Structure formats: structure tokens, C-alpha cells
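This part of the workshop introduces the protein records we will be handling. The question running through the whole workshop is how a given chain folds. To make this concrete, we reproduce a full record directly below:
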Amino acid sequence: MLIDRLSRRGMRGGMKNLLSDPIAPGIALLVMVSFAVLGLPEWLGAHRWWATNVVVWGSALGALLWWVGARFAVAALVPSVLLVGLGAMAARFGKAAFVASYAENALAGRFWFFGWITLCAGVFWTVAVLARRSKP
């Protein structure tokens, strides 16, 4: 009932459209799994102990953001790319400050960790938005 009321208020497509279009998040999930299997987060600067965890948490957050954006008809390409940039900056500067403090600065370590989660969420969201837009 709630879904029907929301879709009548001008929400694009309703719940049926989202559930019938699993291709976009599936492609994004495939990209993120290959990202983790190839070890790219560690190679790009994530800590080896949590390099896979940030991909898992980032993918879950990115899927939630994609779902909310698709559900409420948000033009999501610009915010998703901005999220990638914000996450990359937080991870880069958090790592630099954490290493410069000889692992004493816990706040910088959190910026490094959560920056990577934000980066992975943005990558998932961007790939899902681009995959959905490229459909004929």
C-alpha cells in the first residue's frame, strides 16, 4: 500500500521497475568483486588488513544509495562522482596524516578507513548509474 501511494505521487517507475532491473547493480557488484579479488584497494593505498572489508561495506552503502536514488528519481551521476572524489581525498589525506603521526592519530586512521568505504560506495553507485543509463 505504501509503495503504491509513493509511486502515485510521481515517483518514477515504482517498486516493480526497480525489482525488474537487477542488471545495473549486478554489473556494479561484479566490478566491485573484481576490484577486491584483484587486490586493487591494497595496491591503491588501503591497509592490507581491511582492504577487502572496505569493498564489502562500500558496496552495501553504494547499493543503498543507488536504490534510494533510483526510487526517488534523483539525477545521481554528479553526486556519485562527487562521492568518489570526496572518498579519495579523505582516504589520501587520512593515510598521510596517520603515517606521519606514526600511527598515533586515531582520527586520521578513521578518515583513511571511512574514506575508503566512501570511495567504494561512490564507485558502486557510479557504475550502477552508468549501467542503468546505458540501457537501450
